[in-house]
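Handout, section 4.2: multi-component inputs.
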Amino acid sequence: MKVLLVEDNERVARFVKKGLIESGHTVDHADNGRDGMFLAAGEPYDAIIIDRMLPGDIDGLGIIAALRKSGSKVPILILSALGDVDERIRGLKSGGDDYLVKPFAFGELLARLDALVRRSQDSNTETTLEMDDLSMDLLSRKVTRAGKAVTLQAREFKLLEYLMRHPNQVVTRTMLLENVWDYNFDPQTNVIDVHVSKLRQKIDAGFARPLLRTIRNAGYMLTADD
Amino acid sequence: MIRLLRFSSLNLALSYIALSISLLVLFTTPLGIAWRKDIDEARTENLQQDVQRLSEIFSKLGANGLAAAIDAHLESPFGVDRVMLLADASLSRIAGNLPAWPPEIPASTGTHRFAIDPDGSLMQVVVIHAILPGGYHLLVGREISRFKKVETLFWYGLAGAAVTVLLLGWLGGALIRRTLLSELHTIRQTASAIVRGDLSRRLPTQNAGDELDMLAQTLNRMLDQIEHLVHGVRNVSNAIAHDLRTPLAELRSHLEELSLTRPSPEETFAEIEIAVADVDRVIGIFNALLRLAEIDTGARRAGFVQVDVAEVAAEAAEFYRPVAELNGIRLVFESSNKLEVSGDPLLLAQAIGNLIENALKYAQKNGTITVEVGQRPDASVEVAVADDGPGIPDEEKSKVTERFYRGDASRGTPGVGLGLSLVAAVAKLHGGSLELSDNRPGLRARLVLTRTA
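Output:
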């Protein structure tokens, strides 16, 4: 997909651009607000990654506000060194779709970007989610694997639902923490891993092909591919 | 400040003086009016009596007899301030001490006031004009300036009183100013000492309960808080210097070694991963510190909502339950009904989470952790997390909430010593406290929250 990166820090920009290109994306880069605004308004992008504080007349939030005002629905990920809750809220209120605090791991950025783009394409009206022979009925709240019922607790159901809504996509621990538990702090223990391995026990144990994979240094992925 | 004070104490004295003078005027004006009216009435009555007596003389002795009586009266000691005139029908003078009929007086009867100039000195007189049988006109009057003396005396008295008030007001103002100034001077001196860096100085208080004393006490409390914060900052910067330097030093030596020895690619990648983990640890400390700073500013209070603490604690307990199970620890959650406080749900979740994580770290293998939510007798809400681990010795209890403090028992466990600091900060933000006590064995940590922070 085609991504616009508006970032004035040269090293961060090079790092993000390189990572995105290696993941198969096309990247346009602007290192100031004016050029960023110009590109964002002129070209169709699948997603925009934008730094909050930028040189050149217009800052990140200004660009986002201008884009939203002109009716653009492009998914926008904000990068910022300002991590306060207030700052986050301000960023999201201006029209950003997600907020990532610097410094970040590239895996986190890529996973969030993927999630944003999928969400914008998602019609979000389906009542059943499927992955290979795993199926989830959102209305009756029943889960089956290869026709066999899987009993899940409420939170496990929510965890699996989130993974199934982001199939074949890396989902980081922070994303799970934020979206499944609504927490915004980093636990000192490996509690997310324990939850995931409990879920894995329930959906993968006894099946030849595991669906819930651990992606090293990044997070998890629900996939049927090998 | 002193200029402002000079201004305000002058103002105070001036207003005080103005008020006193207004009161004086307010008090004397009706008195003066009543007095004047009374004098006027008495005078008119007097003149009426004179007219009456003279008419009687006229009816007995005729015009010539009256003329003689008038002259006699005017020469007597009683006639000093009298004005009398008898005139015939054509208003020609017959007798009396006026040279001629005054043109200001009309031919009809009545009471009149006018000025005469008998011997070069102007005097105000009031006269009664009566018409006697046979067309004779009689004027009987009296000089009013006689009462001028009393009036003058009255005005002098009033002026004297006003001057006294002025003097007293000025004196009072000066006294107030001196008292205020001397107290403010102490405040100023103390403040200057603090500005110079002596944060331990405090304003003198007398427990007198007056406004200045109350101000001094409030300022002292403010200074306590400032001193506490400054010490906090000092401790934290020392702690940061120590706790961040260590991982950064390790990281640096790792990287330097790597660039010097140039090991095999596999080894290099492994070392890089360790380095990234080191960096993540430093970032984690930074995040924790920033979060603490954010909480300390109290800015999060703006986002307070009604939170059911029992629910938040139940969710946190459920969140950590799998970890407890994995370590063979029994995690027991007990709560009564809904217990609402005004607060930040995310911070409360993190604080309770920290307490549970702490308990998980220290609980015995196959031990028990209990999380209890309950209401205290004073209506505050308490979340108690108890474990059966080594506990915290009494002498360390007050220190563990200090930033970066790590007790003896925590050596060799993960963490940087900010967990309980955060819990204490969250408790403070919610108008509560973190209480640590013995669980015999183990630690019982109570997060106390007031209902309305």
